[in-house]
């Protein structure tokens, strides 16, 4: 598939800052891909997300989305292609009810009312929130609030969804709930997903991972390639997958462990096989 996003030599510096927030960042994203962008706090993840849809203007370099180069002339067309789900859903709510909130973006775009009603109903159904259409958003759980935020984006029918630390305020159950919705929507609608996160488990959902460090790309690779660095990720201010922590602990006790990355399921299979040969 072709590239839906192309970033070339992107640089950005915040006003009055002494150091660049992004330095010579270049990467492509294929249509339908799930790309995770990870890094420690302050590594430039959210700054990069905001440069992709014109919330921030690049200092230099180019950003292309769906074949359009980001500029003052194209920024609104690009924003129609890109939806962002932010960290705190309460900051995105504007409606008195769930349905009112989902319809808000469509009203701003002048979508005819019959089409609006159809899109709101479809979006709420897709995220499993139809029964909550008349509820106040403030009375929902964290996972439910993020589902509503996602519905508001899906109703606008973007090609790309950016999750900007969207699960960081949720408990593990809520996190899995939201990621499950995103997986289903991606497969059903053919969406491209960019996940801006410091959560290793969320990053493991991706096809590829960009590892950012102090505004620069440290590495681009598959989850297996990135996580194979194991405990070295701690030096970059990141967590390490549980399976890698367990491998390291077992290796320190003299048990022979493979160097390549294993998710939990593969590690269980390996340990079971190892146990059966002892």
Sequence of secondary-structure elements: EEEHEEHEHHHEHEHEEHHHH
CATH class of the largest domain: Alpha Beta
Biggest β-sheet: strands ordered side by side in the sheet: 6-7-8-3-9-10
Based on CA inertia axes, which overall geometry fits?
globular
Q: Provide the gyration radius in Å.
A: 20 Å
Q: Portion of residues in helices?
A: 25-40%
Strand content: 15-25%
Keywords: ATP-binding, Cell membrane, Membrane, Nucleotide-binding, Translocase, Transport
GO cellular component, one term: ATP-binding cassette (ABC) transporter complex
Main location: membrane
Family: Belongs to the ABC transporter superfamily.
Give a description of the structure.
- This protein is an alpha/beta fold and 278 residues long.
- It has 2 domains: 139 residues, P-loop containing nucleotide triphosphate hydrolases (Rossmann fold, 3-Layer(aba) Sandwich); 60 residues.
- It is built from 11 helices and 10 strands.
- Strands 6-7-8-3-9-10 form a 6-stranded mixed sheet, with helices on both faces. A 4-stranded antiparallel sheet has the order 2-1-4-5, covered by helices on one side.
- The termini are far apart.
- The mean pLDDT is 87.
């Amino acid at each position: 598939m072709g590239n839906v996003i192309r970033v070339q030599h992107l640089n950005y510096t915040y006003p009055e800052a002494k150091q660049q927030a992004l330095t010579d960042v270049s990467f492509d994203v294929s249509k339908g891909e799930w790309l995770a962008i990870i890094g420690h706090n302050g590594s430039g993840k959210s700054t990069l997300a905001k440069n992709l849809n014109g919330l921030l203007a690049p200092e230099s370099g180019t950003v292309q989305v769906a074949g359009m180069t980001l500029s003052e002339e194209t920024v609104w067309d690009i924003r129609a292609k890109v939806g962002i789900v932010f960290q705190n859903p309460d900051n995105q709510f504007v409606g008195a009810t769930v349905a009112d909130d989902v319809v808000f973006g469509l009203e701003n775009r002048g979508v005819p009312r019959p089409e609006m009603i159809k899109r709101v109903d479809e979006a709420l159904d897709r995220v499993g929130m139809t029964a909550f259409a008349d509820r106040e958003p403030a009375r929902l759980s964290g996972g439910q609030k993020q589902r509503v935020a996602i519905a508001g984006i899906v109703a606008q029918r973007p090609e790309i969804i950016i999750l900007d630390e969207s699960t960081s305020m949720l408990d593990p159950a809520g996190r899995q709930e939201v990621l499950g919705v995103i997986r289903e929507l991606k497969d059903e609608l053919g969406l491209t997903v960019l996940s801006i996160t410091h959560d290793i488990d969320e990053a493991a959902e991706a096809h590829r991972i960009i590892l950012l460090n102090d505004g620069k790309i440290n590495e681009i690779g598959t989850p297996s390639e990135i996580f194979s660095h194991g405990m070295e990720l701690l030096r970059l201010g990141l967590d390490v997958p549980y399976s890698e922590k367990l491998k390291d602990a077992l290796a320190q006790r003299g048990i022979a462990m493979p160097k390549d990355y294993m998710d939990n399921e593969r590690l269980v299979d390996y340990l079971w096989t190892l146990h059966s040969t002892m």
